[in-house]
Write a structure and sequence with these properties.
- This protein has helices spanning 8-12, 27-39, 50-53, 95-118, 123-143, 145-193, 199-207, 211-219, 222-236, and strands at 66-69, 72-75.
- By secondary structure, the protein is mainly alpha-helical.
Length: 240
């Protein structure tokens, strides 16, 4: 049988559509339900029409300590049976306890298979022993949850510290490159100032600024600043 085509709206929806029975919650349906309940207080779910059945709340859960999961019925209260072994004393988590519990579980399984082969009627105590050992192993594993949380937090903080150190090192490298470029520019400027000319050229340089010097003075240092930034961009522009 071919599957019905799926609409593009259902695929592209960010959230699933609400259940269809929400359409039954109307003012008229609620009024009809109230009138029917007043007429017949012992009204059951099957006595109502289909459009009114979803308006009734579900029955409350039974006031018992039993629940059903994976096809088995369990009791929330601790069992009163004496077949189960005494609970072990509370100890700090360590790997040896888990290894010992696992070995005891294997021995209990071998004992259960022996009982099933020799006398099948005596399987209940061995089965209860295995259930108790499994519960003990599960409790030991859960005791490691705080340790796992601490180790995870330590790892996250170490990664954050390493990332901050790498960023700091990168900033220091850039600062060193910029400082080197600035020192190079200053040394070039100092060297250019010490250049002297002979004769009339030197006298003219002292008493009458040249057109280039006048232009630099008119710029007010903007040309030199632009030159510095061009050199910095050339040296450290590829840092990222």
């Amino acid at each position: 049988m071919a599957e019905p085509p799926v609409s593009s709206a259902a695929i592209s929806a960010a959230f699933p559509t609400p259940p269809p029975f929400y359409k039954s919650f109307t003012t008229s349906n609620l009024a009809r339900l109230s009138s029917l309940q007043e007429t017949n207080p012992s009204l059951t779910l099957l006595d109502l029409p289909p459009e009114l059945r979803t308006l009734l709340p579900p029955p409350p859960p039974p006031e018992t300590q039993q629940y059903r999961i994976f096809g088995e019925t369990h009791t929330a209260a601790p069992p009163a049976s004496t077949n189960n072994p005494a609970p072990l004393q509370k100890e700090p988590p360590n790997p040896h306890r888990l290894v010992n519990t696992t070995r005891q579980l294997l021995l209990a399984f071998l004992s259960l298979t022996h009982c099933l082969a020799v006398d099948p009627d005596t399987w209940a105590p061995k089965w209860d022993e295995m259930r108790a050992l499994l519960s003990e192993a599960h409790g030991i594993v859960n005791e490691y949850r705080p340790h796992q949380a601490r180790e995870t937090l330590i790892q996250m903080m170490e990664e954050q510290v390493e990332r901050c150190r790498a960023e700091t090192k990168g900033c220091k490298d850039v600062c060193a490159k910029v400082r080197k470029v600035v020192e190079d520019v200053e040394s070039r400027e100092e060297a250019s100032r010490k250049v002297t000319t002979t004769g009339v050229e030197e006298e003219e340089e002292v008493h009458r600024p040249s057109m280039k010097s006048r232009g630099d003075e008119a710029l007010g240092g903007e040309g030199m600043e632009k030159k510095v930034w061009d050199i910095i961009e050339k040296e450290v522009g590829d840092f990222e």
